[in-house]
Amino acid sequence: MPLRLIFMGTPDFSVPTLLELVAHGHEIVAVYTRAPKPGGRRGLQLQPTPVEEAARKLGVPVLTPKTLKTQEALAEFSAFEADAAVVVAYGMILPQAILDAPKLGCYNLHASLLPCWRGAAPINRAIMAGDAESGVMVMKMDVGLDTGDVAMAERLAISDNMTAADLHDRLSRLGADLMVRAMAALDRGGLQLKKQSEEGVTYAAKIDKAEARIDWSRPARAVLRHIHGLSPFPGAWAELENARVKILRCELAKGAGEPGAVLDAQLTIACGEGAIRVLELQREGKGRMQAADFLRGVPLMPGAKFT
Q1: In the structure, what pLDDT confidence band is assigned to residue 241 with cuts at 50, 70 and 90?
Q2: Fewest Cβ atoms closer than 10 Å to its Cβ: which of 58, 128, 146, 300?
Q3: Which region holds residue 170: left if phi is over 0, alpha if psi is between -120 and 50, else beta?
């Protein structure tokens, strides 16, 4: 029998899970997401979240409460009489009363291998830290920050050429399949839970734009992982001739020199140890472009410097 589910999510990352649950026959009785925000060219038009857009196409009721901590919010949530709630990057804390409302509990899809990288930005932090792998986990939620018992997991290797966008997309698809399997096991009464280890706990703090400036004195691989971990948003940047340039994709390269110095006509830049070659970048006020296209308009010779 399909489960009666409340789905709670907000960004693009959440959408594949919603669609897969519907495709596998589960009844989505309501979708909770964040309220629309001003957007568009002039910032005046309210933009629904990707999850709201998907839910509207599915004909599922959409709710955008500002808080879940009131008796009214609890009564509305409970009235759906859901078997369980599925939470994927919702962006709002669920109080204990909400967690207790579905008879089988609330289950979160988290984009890390818990207890590593609990918190807001696990994808970015895993790349920036130089981790060899990441993954997704289905966790039964409690009131702690990603501290609940874990049910199922899938692992994924992180290569040096992966940006945060690349890893985001792969984990989103992997997580959708994992949550479908978890809900099937829950429906059968066979979902097994295991407490998280108390060792290896790390926290993925929200990305601060102040972190985005590139430190060329670091080794090349650390610079590459910093760049890729912040690509495409907020974008790691440096200054070239007093103009800000975001570097969005790069690769390790041979070469040595003063950190930040351009070493050749292919946009190889020296780091504290080794060098990187820029593959994709974005000038201030411009769209993203390939390095070759950038160099046709702004030819850089050895001796130029990124600061």
Answers
A1: confident
A2: 58
A3: alpha
